[in-house]
Design brief:
The chain is mainly alpha-helical. Helices cover about 65% and strands about 0% of the residues. The radius of gyration is 19 Å and the shape is globular. InterPro entries: Homeodomain-like_sf, HTH-type_TetR-like_transc_reg, HTH_TetR, Tet_transcr_reg_TetR-rel_C_sf. Keywords: DNA-binding, Transcription, Transcription regulation. This is AcrR family transcriptional regulator.
Length: about 210
């Protein structure tokens, strides 16, 4: 069972505590990195450790809840617009852009998740279902390759999220690989230049990479 997705409605005071803990977690991960102790998050939230652990069994559960909230705030509205729009392929890539924006902004949260398989198959179940609808519509409209499956697309999304590990947190270096994926799965390549290349931070590859 996914506790993030299957939470029962909370009392008002308990809901406020959960909101404070999630807000503090995002702040602490942003300021201190993926290894920030849960005690620091509890202090920042103004709650005791018992309150934190009553709502979140461990750091990963807290991280997934924080990501789930950001996806709800920043990606769900884009999904609604995409599903209501006439161009499914355009809608699909607006959803991917929104997802990658969250992944970049919350890079330290992603870094705290021990295994990322649950990221796409668990907390983002609704997102995956919506992406499947957009893929099917795009294929029906002739704008997305008919030989692309949802398995392919899920793997491509997982690969794109992995791009966050190769760039500065909060940057938009993901736009170039997203554009490359778009070129690969559209039936016609968009007539636009690729977004600019961004360097790989913290590496000595500059002399051999373009």
């Amino acid at each position: 069972m996914n506790r993030v997705a299957d939470r029962r409605p909370l009392r008002a005071d308990a809901a406020r505590n959960v909101d404070k803990i999630i807000t503090a977690a995002r702040q602490c991960f942003r300021e201190h990195g993926p290894e920030v102790p849960l005690q620091t998050i509890a202090v920042t939230a103004g709650v005791g450790p018992a309150t934190l652990f009553r709502n979140f069994a461990d750091k990963e559960e807290l991280v997934l809840a924080a990501l789930h909230r950001q996806l709800g705030l920043l990606v769900d509205p884009v999904i609604e617009e995409a599903l209501a729009g006439p161009d499914a392929a355009d809608g699909l890539f607006r959803v991917i852009d929104a997802l990658m924006g969250v992944a970049s902004d919350e890079a330290n949260l992603l870094g705290a998740v021990a295994g990322r398989r649950g990221l796409l198959t668990g907390i983002t179940g609704d997102l995956i279902e919506s992406v499947a609808v957009l893929l099917g519509r795009g294929q029906g409209q002739g704008t997305l390759r008919s030989d692309i499956s949802m398995t392919d697309l899920i793997r491509l999304l997982a690969m794109l999220i992995g791009v966050v590990d190769t760039m500065e947190a909060g940057s938009d270096a993901w736009r170039r690989p997203v554009a490359l994926v778009e070129d690969a799965i559209r039936t016609e390549r968009p007539q636009r230049p690729l977004p600019p290349q961004a360097p790989l931070p913290g590496t000595a590859y500059g002399s051999v990479l373009g």
